[in-house]
């Protein structure tokens, strides 16, 4: 194999010695064998054997990808299209937001939510952690969630409220439609079940966060039903007490690559929340997402939540397949919801129905 | 015919290209692009040339002659005496080594004819972008698209893939390192250009996507591509014309800076692979890059620094028009930051809207960037 020595993942010291000894291609290394190699560049036999093993693995293929990667890395666009079309979305219960996202939060992509404090980022994260568990017959992906909390803003009582509202909603749909599999799915879709399938990790500084993300692939191979990884507050550990900014950029970029590998290999959606910071320009100052310019490239999809007087708005700022647009949303006691259009005659509304029900499921009970 | 002028700019392209050419006869007939190895680095091995035997090599290395350049530049009479080898044999070996490893001079006219016959210009799917690039993407060159997040780099790349696979019926290799490739968006673009479903599906099949998330995977993918192309395996990979790497900064950024010494070396390895691929197989290579903020002046500049800025021959900067999020538009401005053919500073408008990467108008050229 004519792979150059410089492109192999060996230690830099080893690479330098190989270059000095005149080795050019991987084939030459393999031909020389471990004894010849250890003699020529002055390393021990074990090191030479290890190096040759790495070389062999690189050249002869894909032994590495056997760690449970369900999606192949190489395919044609047609195959990818079929995969995408059969993939579900994680709905947010706010149909306007789902619409601008193209159906909901996409699996295998990183979505970033930026916003000022109090605008609803953690609320959406908790809503998604519940929504990912909705059974497939109701339009969900029936997965589990991993919640990595760095700010300590995860409130279990709030999740209980959201989950209860979600379960009630599904019950209503089941009653309206009266199908077999709905009833069966509802047996397992209960409050205790939802809560037990949210795996919660608390990370207090950036080292813990990096370690947690590093260990995540192993965790995900054991819990193969996880379809959502939320990191609530990726900015917090990196913003306070970090002196070396170039180190921060490097770590963040490495983290982004690890997350996209996780998203891809385990078919999970990764959702990150970010803070806002002020950028002072020549004449005015603007509010921009924190963590710098290069972090903006890490997320595939970027949502910015902001206020307009007292209305909460969400703007889709970056997406590979959807146009930029802005919608309004509400946060109610039941969770993340649409804003109801103000002057609309209530068509059919039973008193026990939640008035903020998603317009998508129009099977309202006829009273 | 070699290209000695270029040899100086790019020290030593692919190793073994010379010998591989003899074995497999790579490249089309008449296109003899011989890339000689840098003579300094090749170690003497048995079988490198007919007269060179294992014992000879042992004797030579005992006297400090290990590489070809040591051999060729040493005084052969001296060597014959010290190693007790026959002078005639040494001279014969030297002649063969020189023939094998040195460059052949070529004249400019031949070079020009060669380039004229092998270079193609590919339309990007957006007429104003084509105008900016002097009628399109040139094969044999590396073109870079840079911009802040959300300015449309991936969209333009998808537009190029759509136009090449549908319009020219050529294959495209898309190396995705950010997870931003969305097949449904590509499908949307194809649907906007043609109604025929057969054609759409065929075009989708001509776009090959590989997900590569770190630098070694990128290098491996490029190496595999090179092997496949040089052996002319036609089965899965049809006539390939474009390789897109989206984005190059995502894989290189984690390696640069700090106390890591190999980041820069790997970046240069990558650039060498990309350029030799482009030149040897007559491909257009498109890479996307980020922009970073200059800490002192606060202006945006391309990422990856000065060393990388020499790699692409054409650089296009994409910018969005607004800074607020109340008003969202699909208008983008593309300006030429570096080009071997056009004056820099030309700006055009692009619309990365719903149908496909189209453009409304050509803005008058502005001075500077």
UniProtKB/TrEMBL annotation, chain A:
Chief localisation class: cytoplasm
SUPFAM superfamilies attached to this UniProt entry: P-loop containing nucleoside triphosphate hydrolases
Sequence segments annotated as region (Disordered): 337-367
CDD domains, alphabetized: Rad51C (cd19492)
UniProt GO cellular component terms: cell junction; cytosol; mitochondrion; nucleoplasm; perinuclear region of cytoplasm; Rad51B-Rad51C-Rad51D-XRCC2 complex; Rad51C-XRCC3 complex; replication fork
UniProt KW Membrane keyword: no
Subcellular location: Cytoplasm, Perinuclear region; Mitochondrion; Nucleus
GO terms of biological process kind: female meiosis sister chromatid cohesion; male meiosis I; meiotic DNA recombinase assembly; positive regulation of G2/M transition of mitotic cell cycle; reciprocal meiotic recombination; spermatogenesis; telomere maintenance via recombination
Domain RecA family profile: from-to ranges: 86-276
GO molecular function: ATP binding; ATP-dependent DNA damage sensor activity; crossover junction DNA endonuclease activity; four-way junction DNA binding
InterPro entries attached to this UniProt entry: DNA_recomb/repair_RecA-like (IPR016467), HR_Repair_Mediator (IPR052093), P-loop_NTPase (IPR027417), Rad51_C (IPR013632), RecA_ATP-bd (IPR020588)
Keyword vocabulary terms for this entry: ATP-binding, Cytoplasm, DNA damage, DNA recombination, DNA repair, DNA-binding, Mitochondrion, Nucleotide-binding, Nucleus, Phosphoprotein
PROSITE patterns the record matches: RECA_2
Family: Belongs to the RecA family. RAD51 subfamily.
Designated name of the protein: DNA repair protein RAD51 homolog 3
Originating gene: RAD51C
